[in-house]
Design goal:
The complex is a heterodimer of chains A (235) and B (319).
Chain A: E1 2-11, E2 14-24, E3 29-33, H1 40-48, E4 53-60, E5 63-64, E6 78-81, H2 93-100, H3 104-108, H4 110-120, H5 122-126, H6 137-149, E7 155-159, H7 167-184, E8 187-192, H8 195-200, E9 204-209, E10 212-217, H9 219-224, H10 226-231
Parallel strand pairs in A: 3-8, 3-9, 6-7, 7-8
Antiparallel strand pairs in A: 1-2, 1-4, 4-5, 9-10
Chain B: H1 3-38, H2 46-63, H3 66-97, H4 115-137, E1 152-158, E2 162-167, H5 168-190, H6 192-202, H7 204-210, H8 214-236, H9 246-261, H10 266-286, H11 292-306
Antiparallel strand pairs in B: 1-2
Helix pairs in contact in B: 1-5, 1-8, 1-9, 1-10, 2-3, 2-4, 2-8, 2-9, 3-8, 5-6, 5-8, 6-7, 6-8, 9-10, 9-11, 10-11
Classes of the chains: A alpha/beta (235), B mainly alpha (319).
Main location (chain B): membrane
InterPro entries (chain B): ABC_transp_permease (IPR001851), BCAA_transport_permease (IPR052157)
Subcellular location (chain B): Cell membrane
């Protein structure tokens, strides 16, 4: 579904990603883990087009994303739930969800999707009329996820959904994601610092360090890998 | 009439006049609110966009010969409304060629979000428009007169012979202003276009992730803001003569109105403009006319000290 080949990207003249290749098959849960500054968010931004690539290719269902304007990409079925949530704080929760549903597919399925989002994340229904900026961090993360789901995406990209949340809330968000994935059969690409959880649930994992893929394999194998255990799992 | 009655009558008269002029100021402020309040673009040329709108309405009226087939009453208002799409196009073009280079996603990461560049750029545009208009149209005062400009409706007598008169041209202008604002408020509040404009202004990066063309949204808002202020200018011109430098007098009123109403609130900007109209007219009861603009700023400072977020301002954190 998503095929990234030999991608280099960065800011101004400074490359952050070097010759990076990542693949996501339809229906897969793929996790990308790695320390701060490894280029995980930059990778997502390059896919979405807010960071310009320097070389390589990004194909989504065979289509070259680099030829498309950033704002055209979500309409293909890519939902990007950005790092730090980035909700529209002066819009209500419901309006935030409506913005997700601006894509063609999102508009078509809106009534159905909204009902489904509310059943997964009931807190959004309770808060529907409230300004998103007034919510707690965990609730804002739900808004960001709900907003991504509202576009009826084929691929859901989640950038550190646990960032800045209390461990219990982060666990809750993770469980919700699992539930949503099971119900909707979504393809998910996850970037996460909570390495154990991220690899636990992944069909495939990548370990990113200083902009390069240093390890890849299925989740279980990576989790058992000595280097991963030492560096990230503290074992 | 007793002394008290005269005071009551002149107060009522000032309130009536203040509401009428306030509605037009309100419309003017709403135009700036689209650009400065919502999009956070500092535009010093807003008053001069209004001036261009006034001349556009004037030339639409005279060159198309509207009064000859629409009559002297309806003609001027049609001319004002015809100028609106023209100024929409003008605003669109100014944004496409100049403003986009100093706004939006390009400058989101810069210090001050590109405000320094906006300041200099729009100041430059203002100077070019003012002096360009001076060369093209000359310095003489012109106005868009209608027979209504010197006609009034008398309300009264009530309470032992009190009466208030309402200038008909201003009354019509105020009504048109209110209709436009209600329509605009509905568009911004309830339509997908309006919501996506607000989203693009709130968080441009996230808006892109939703599939909103942020550059186009900003351009739409800018053009809409230009057209609205220009329409207010045209409505004002049915009663006030104008000249190429008229923008300077009003750009300050507009910023005061937007800040009074609460930055980011379109309805707030309308009430801000209304408040300024009322203060301006009421001040003439006790103060000489020359001081009416000074009164506006005393009032402005008071509000800013007592309620810094403005009438309708929200303290919502912008991410």
């Amino acid at each position: 579904m998503l095929e990234i080949r030999n991608l280099s990207a960065g800011y101004s003249e400074i490359a952050v990603l070097h010759d990076l290749s990542v693949g996501v098959e339809a229906g897969q849960f793929v996790s990308i883990v790695g320390p701060n500054g490894a280029g995980k968010s930059t990778l997502f931004k390059t896919i979405s087009g807010t960071v310009k690539p320097m070389g390589g290719e990004i194909l989504f269902e065979g289509e070259n994303l680099m030829k498309l304007a950033p704002a055209a990409r979500p309409h293909l079925g890519i939902a990007h739930v950005p790092e730090g949530r980035q909700v529209f704080s002066s819009l209500t929760v419901l309006e935030n969800l409506e913005m997700g549903a601006i894509t063609e597919a999102g508009k078509k399925n809106w009534a159905q999707t909204l009902e489904q989002i509310y059943s997964w994340l009931p807190v959004l229904e309770d808060r529907a009329g409230q300004f998103a900026g007034t919510l707690s961090g965990g609730e804002q993360q739900m808004v960001a996820i709900g907003r991504g789901l509202a576009s009826s995406p084929k691929l859901l990209m989640l950038d550190e959904p646990s960032m800045g949340l209390a461990p219990a809330i982060a666990d809750f968000v993770f469980d919700k994601l699992m539930e949503i994935r099971k119900d909707a059969g979504l393809t998910i690409l996850l970037v996460e610092q909570r390495v154990a959880e991220a690899l636990q649930v992944a069909d495939k994992g990548y370990v990113l360090e200083t902009g390069r893929v240093v390890l890849e394999g299925d989740g279980e194998t990576l989790k058992a890998d000595d280097r991963v255990r030492q560096a990230y799992l503290g074992m | 009439m007793t002394e008290t009655q005269i005071l009551i009558e002149s107060t009522l008269q000032a309130i009536a006049a203040g509401i009428l002029i306030g509605a037009i100021y309100g419309l003017m402020c709403v135009g700036l609110a689209m650009i400065f309040g919502i999009m956070r673009v500092i535009n010093f040329a807003q008053g001069d966009f209004m001036m261009i709108g006034m001349y556009a309405a004037f030339f639409a009226l005279t060159l198309l010969g509207l009064p000859s087939f629409l009559g002297p009453v309806v003609g001027p208002y049609v001319a004002v409304l015809l100028a609106a799409p023209l100024l929409y196009g003008f605003g669109w073009l100014i944004h496409r060629t100049l403003i986009r280079r100093v706004t939006g996603i390009e400058t989101a990461d810069l210090e001050g979000e590109g405000h320094y560049a906006q300041l200099i750029l729009t100041l430059g545009i203002a100077l070019i428009l003012q002096n360009g208009a001076m060369i093209l149209f000359g310095a003489e005062l012109i106005s868009i007169r209608t027979p209504l400009s010197s006609d009034a409706i008398f309300v009264g007598p009530f309470l032992d012979g009190l009466a208030v008169f309402l200038n008909k041209a201003r009354l019509v202008s105020a009504c048109i202003s209110v209709v436009i604002i209600v329509a605009l408020w509905w568009v911004i509040k309830s339509t997908t276009l309006g919501k996506s404009l607000r989203a693009a202004a709130d968080n441009p990066e996230a808006a892109i992730y939703m599939g909103i063309d942020v550059d186009r949204s900003h351009r739409t808002a800018f053009a809409l803001g230009t057209a609205i202020t220009a329409t207010a200018g045209g409505l004002l011109a049915t009663n006030y003569p104008f000249h190429p430098f008229v923008g300077l007098e009003y750009v300050i009123i507009m910023y005061a109105g937007v800040v009074l109403g609460g930055i980011g609130s379109v309805i707030g900007a309308f009430w801000g403009g209304m408040a300024i109209g009322l203060v301006q007219q009421l001040s003439t009861i006790i103060l000489p006319t020359q001081l009416q603009n000074a009164t506006i700023f005393v009032f402005f400072l008071l509000i800013v000290i007592l309620r810094p977020q403005g009438f309708f301002g929200r303290n919502v954190e912008r991410t």
